[in-house]
Amino acid sequence: MLLRILIILTLHVTVLVLLFVSAIVNAWTVGETSGSDLWLKCSTSNGGYHCKPTPTGVWIQLVQALMVLSVLYSALALLFFLCQLFTLRKGGRFFLAAVFQILASVLVMSAAAVYTVQSPGWAQEREVFGFSYMLAWVAFPLALLSGLVYIILRKIE
Fold first, then answer.
1. CA distance 111 to 38
2. Helix and strand tally (H, E) in the chain?
3. C-alpha to C-alpha distance for 2 and 59, rounded to whole angstroms
4. Which neighbouring-strand residues pair with 48?
5. Are the CB atoms for 23 and 38 separated by under 8 Å?
6. CA geometry: angle at 98 spanning 92 and 99, to 5°?
7. Is the pTM of this model over 0.70?
8. Between 91 and 151, the higher pLDDT residue
9. By the number of CB atoms within 10 A of the CB, which of 21, 80, 84, 140 ranks highest?
10. Measured between alpha carbons, how far apart are the two ends of the chain, in Å?
11. Edge to edge, what strands does the sheet with 128-129 contain?
């Protein structure tokens, strides 16, 4: 049982790190001289690196909110899992942790989907999706898997 819990804990921490990195690193779209994320648009011009806040559009604010909520829900799921680990009776399931982790999964998927649909009109011509965007898509199935494992997992001795 201890090995299972360590594997599940490692998976959950990995998902949390992926979500956190994808939310803050400046690489959702990258180009030769520019890059952008959910918060800043940076470019190299006139021998310097210049950053400015992203334009305030409804869709980018939605993506920002969904990513922040996914990180928070995943952190809460980890906290609930640790609390339930010590307080749950034998045979109980980790439903509360599972619900929050599955919600985090749905939120990150929604954020990445909205960004996928809306970014072509916002990004420059030669920009492509960066690794933070890819990390968000990788975090989605891992978070969903983690949430489903919490539903299946029973506390046994």
1. 10
2. 4, 5
3. 43
4. 45
5. yes
6. 115
7. yes
8. 151
9. 140
10. 7
11. 48-53, 40-45, 34-36, 29-30, 128-129
